[in-house]
Structure to design on (952 residues):
């Protein structure tokens, strides 16, 4: 018999066996097809969502041949790469002039002869919405022109064609609540436009912007601003030109070089797609060494692929082992008819090839189908439309081959065992006695310890490659120890009731079936726990370093235009009517010495200053500044470092000191209500001090003997008649010693306020003061609609105020990430537990029949199945949790190393790098998922069994 004829027979036997055992075959096919499906869908999605070079050009140029951009350097020669993105000014180029001295560039003169063009220019603007007002970007561009097809597409209505028409992206329409036909007003010039159509940018589906025809927004706005000095002119972006070259010629590299001589950068379609040789690119000589190294990314991808294959092999291997045992009589007949051990192994391997091939084909087909079915959802998630479904045949073929190879690898170990089995054992059905390997646990323990050591060393040294390699080694070492751990489970059931005792002993007796399933669960849970632990730890670090801009649960209404008397009552009513205000309002004022420094056209030396002079001496100096600060920072604990950072002496030394509407000295006019509602200082003595005219100082480091030194430099503007009347004469400096009430140290870190001064004290000192805003207590975070409504009402008040809310400590994405990881690991755990439970039932039918024959109640079969599933799930989850902590800890050690380096450079930087276990995720995996798996297995198992004669 030739090799090929032998394999034909083996494949025929394997195919018939697969058809005969439909349930087990479907299980194996599903295990192989599911990862193939996922990889196929991921490959198709990645290749389709990642735009090709031609699709990138369409997103930038539409149907035009090139985009010409004036870089604002004047007519100065530039150099650029063929991609039109990277450019520079040559070293021998003349020095550029200031903006007001540069000569304008005649960009259209650089276009190829016989070409036509469109202009494009954008401007930020504030516009009205159905809810109120919002900020957006308006682009003047003839979006109806065919040159824009592929870049801007109409989804509803009509393109704007007149100067009083405008189009909006779908995302803007959804956020603003507007509809086609509604009126949109551009605030400032108060120009009104009709919303005629909805458009989308295929490369930017989330963009919220408006489109108008050229000359419809910017020119009228500037004209209105020239006529009315109260209206600020728009700050438009650089003008760009979309150019369609001469028919059949396009825009060539020579055209690009000609434009570069005039200071214009060009992104030309045919140049990007077919770039010239480096010898013709002047800038290419300066771009050596810009290639990126993707070695780490490739290594990570290969590691993930290898672990995925290992997990499939671990899950599918027991199924082939059970199949080989159930077919042992057939395999024995092959041997009795003259078949060699190699041919017996070939039959089992052929089963892996048959089922692996079917799984690969089914997975690839399902991957294509699901990608097409969920394409709109995927496009919305990625934020861009697929130009077309990009298929790389060789990649798809490699994925299919991977599925086939995985099936063969899963059948390899059972094939070796079947080949070693004697013909007598196969025909009689006796398994014989086999001892577990004594070497494997020892090797596994050594590899486990070595992997942990390598991962920790990688974390301490900052080598993430060693961290990844050590983590994989530790996991592989733990895999080698699993058979011993599973064997130990049998000893735990001595004092347990019947069904859990049988379940534990069955798991220990059939280690070849239980250990791989436990390993597969461990692998999935380890990855999820590692990412979840790192995410939780990073979130805790961010919360630790968080510096709030306001006291939590508050909002501040502030004014920023003091050229007029602000209509604060109407602005306050706007906030109270639109925001979820739960408490009363607390007003505060600002004060300064001399002219109003917030007026934008005042020169810096024309403003007065007001400051609290910090006393000198060790008691008032921050120990994290100056001599010995580095040694102190490295010596103390993270908690002590944070205590020092929030201490009165150090809290104002940080470069990230936060204020809201006040100057850096953070002195405000307020009363006792401000102390209780915002500062959270409910102290009758402090309220009494304010009522008597004594300021309340929140930072004790600025006080000495119960007094502060207040230094004011009074300067006056000729238009400031009020201040001139109060303080006639030349510029003068006053220094006053004020008695203050010093609040406890814990209030020194109150955001935005250092000292609260009564109004009468400010008047007595001759300081200029006026209402600056109000503080509100909120019962929740306001929605976008509420913000837009409040902004519109404030705008109608005409005082140019704004509202700010407290920034949250943590972004909401962390909880979503942890939930997704838990769900992923839970699904894999349920699947692996279900697989091993199904194999246990198929492998132990004779034992279950014996239990029923000796009078076991019908519920024993159901409860036994449930406990078998629980044992696998719980063991795998606990081992996976332990394995997942290793890479997380190693990566946090890498972060600690970087944090310590930052602290050495600046002792004010925190080196707090906690390791926080995601107890919610671990509890979900360690308690909920195993119990759920056991209950489902018990519920789906029939308690009745038809008795059959037991052979042997």
């Amino acid at each position: 018999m030739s090799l090929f004829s032998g394999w034909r027979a083996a494949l025929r036997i394997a195919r018939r066996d697969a058809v005969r055992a439909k349930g087990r075959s479907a299980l194996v096919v599903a295990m192989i097809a599911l990862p193939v499906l996922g990889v196929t869908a991921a490959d198709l999605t990645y290749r389709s969502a990642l735009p090709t070079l031609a699709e990138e050009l369409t997103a930038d140029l539409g149907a035009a041949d090139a985009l010409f951009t004036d870089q604002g350097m004047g007519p100065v020669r530039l150099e650029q790469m063929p991609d039109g993105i990277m450019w520079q000014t040559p070293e021998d180029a003349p020095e550029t002039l200031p903006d007001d001295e540069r000569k304008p560039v005649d960009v259209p003169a650089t276009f190829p002869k016989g070409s036509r063009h469109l202009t494009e220019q954008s401007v930020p603007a504030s516009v009205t919405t159905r809810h109120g007002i919002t900020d957006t970007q308006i682009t003047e561009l003839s979006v109806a022109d065919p040159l824009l097809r592929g870049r801007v597409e109409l989804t509803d209505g009509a393109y704007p064609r007149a100067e009083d028409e405008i189009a909006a992206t779908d995302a803007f329409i959804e956020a603003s609540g507007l509809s086609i036909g509604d009126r949109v007003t551009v605030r400032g010039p108060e120009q009104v436009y009709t919303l005629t159509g909805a458009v989308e940018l295929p490369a930017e589906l989330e963009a919220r912007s408006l489109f108008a025809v050229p000359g419809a927004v910017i020119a009228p706005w500037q004209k209105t601003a020239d006529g009315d000095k109260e209206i600020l002119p728009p700050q438009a972006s650089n003008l760009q030109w979309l150019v369609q070259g001469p028919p059949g010629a396009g825009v060539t590299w020579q055209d690009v070089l000609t434009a570069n001589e005039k200071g214009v950068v060009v992104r030309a379609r045919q140049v990007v797609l077919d770039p010239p040789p480096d010898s013709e690119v002047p800038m290419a000589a300066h771009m050596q060494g810009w290639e990126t190294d993707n070695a780490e990314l490739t290594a990570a991808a290969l590691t993930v692929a290898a672990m995925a294959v290992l997990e499939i092999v671990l899950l599918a291997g027991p199924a082939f082992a059970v199949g080989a045992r159930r077919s042992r009589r057939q395999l024995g007949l092959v041997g009795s008819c003259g078949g060699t051990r190699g041919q017996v192994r070939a039959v089992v391997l052929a089963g892996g090839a048959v089922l692996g091939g079917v799984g690969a084909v089914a997975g690839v087909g399902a991957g294509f189908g699901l990608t097409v079915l969920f394409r709109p959802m995927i496009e919305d998630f990625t934020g861009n439309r697929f130009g077309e479904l990009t298929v790389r045949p060789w990649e798809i073929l490699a994925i299919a081959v991977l599925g086939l190879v995985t099936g063969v690898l899963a059948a390899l170990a059972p094939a070796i065992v079947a080949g070693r089995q004697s013909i007598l054992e196969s025909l009689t059905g006796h398994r014989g006695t086999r001892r577990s390997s004594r070497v494997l646990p020892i090797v596994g323990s050594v590899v486990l310890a070595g992997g942990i050591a390598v991962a920790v060393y990688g974390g301490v040294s900052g080598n993430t490659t060693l961290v990844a390699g050590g983590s994989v080694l530790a996991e592989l070492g733990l895999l080698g120890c699993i058979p011993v751990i599973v064997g130990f489970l049998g000893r735990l059931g001595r004092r347990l009731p019947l069904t859990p005792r049988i379940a534990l002993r069955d798991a220990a007796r059939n280690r070849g079936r239980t250990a791989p399933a436990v390993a597969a669960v461990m692998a999935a849970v380890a990855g999820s726990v590692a990412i979840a632990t790192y995410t939780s730890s990073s979130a805790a670090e961010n919360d630790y370093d968080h510096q709030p801009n306001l006291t939590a649960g508050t909002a501040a209404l502030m004014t920023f235009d003091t050229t007029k008397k602000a209509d604060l009552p109407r602005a306050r009513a706007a906030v109270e009517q639109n925001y979820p205000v739960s408490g009363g309002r607390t007003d505060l004022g600002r004060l300064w010495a001399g002219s109003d420094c917030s007026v934008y056209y005042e020169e810096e030396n024309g403003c007065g200053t007001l400051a609290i002079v910090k006393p000198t001496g060790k008691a008032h100096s921050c120990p994290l500044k100056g001599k010995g600060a580095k040694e102190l920072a490295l010596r103390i604990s993270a908690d002590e470092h944070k205590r020092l950072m929030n201490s009165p002496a150090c809290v104002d030394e940080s470069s990230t000191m936060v204020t809201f509407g006040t100057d850096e000295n953070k002195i405000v006019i307020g009363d006792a209500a401000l102390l209780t509602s915002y500062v959270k200082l409910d102290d009758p003595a402090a309220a009494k001090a304010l009522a008597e005219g004594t300021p309340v100082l929140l930072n004790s480091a600025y006080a000495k003997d119960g007094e502060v030194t207040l230094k004011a430099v009074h300067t006056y503007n000729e238009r400031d008649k009020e201040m001139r009347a109060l303080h006639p004469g030349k510029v003068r400096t006053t220094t006053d010693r004020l008695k203050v009430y010093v609040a406890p140290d814990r209030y020194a870190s109150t955001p935005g306020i250092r000292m609260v001064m009564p109004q009468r004290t400010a008047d007595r000192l001759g300081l200029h003061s006026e209402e600056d805003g109000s503080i509100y207590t909120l019962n929740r975070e306001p929605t976008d609609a509420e913000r837009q409504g409040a902004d519109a009402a404030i705008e109608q008040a005409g005082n140019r105020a704004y509202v700010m809310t407290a920034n949250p400590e943590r972004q909401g994405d962390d909880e979503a990430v942890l939930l997704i990881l838990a769900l992923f690991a839970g699904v894999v755990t349920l699947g692996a537990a279900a697989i091993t439970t199904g194999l246990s039932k198929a492998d132990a039918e004779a034992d279950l029949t014996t239990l029923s024959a000796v009078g076991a109640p019908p519920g024993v079969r159901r409860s036994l199945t449930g406990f078998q599933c629980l044992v696998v799930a719980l063991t795998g989850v606990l081992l996976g949790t332990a394995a997942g902590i290793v890479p997380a800890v190693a990566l946090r050690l890498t972060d600690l190393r970087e944090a310590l380096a930052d602290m050495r450079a600046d002792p004010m930087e925190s080196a707090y790098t906690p390791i926080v276990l995601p107890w919610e995720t671990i509890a979900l995996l360690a308690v909920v998922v195993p119990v759920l798996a056991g209950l489902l297995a018990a519920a789906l198992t029939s308690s009745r069994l038809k008795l059959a004669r037991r052979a042997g």
The two ends are 35 Å apart (CA to CA).
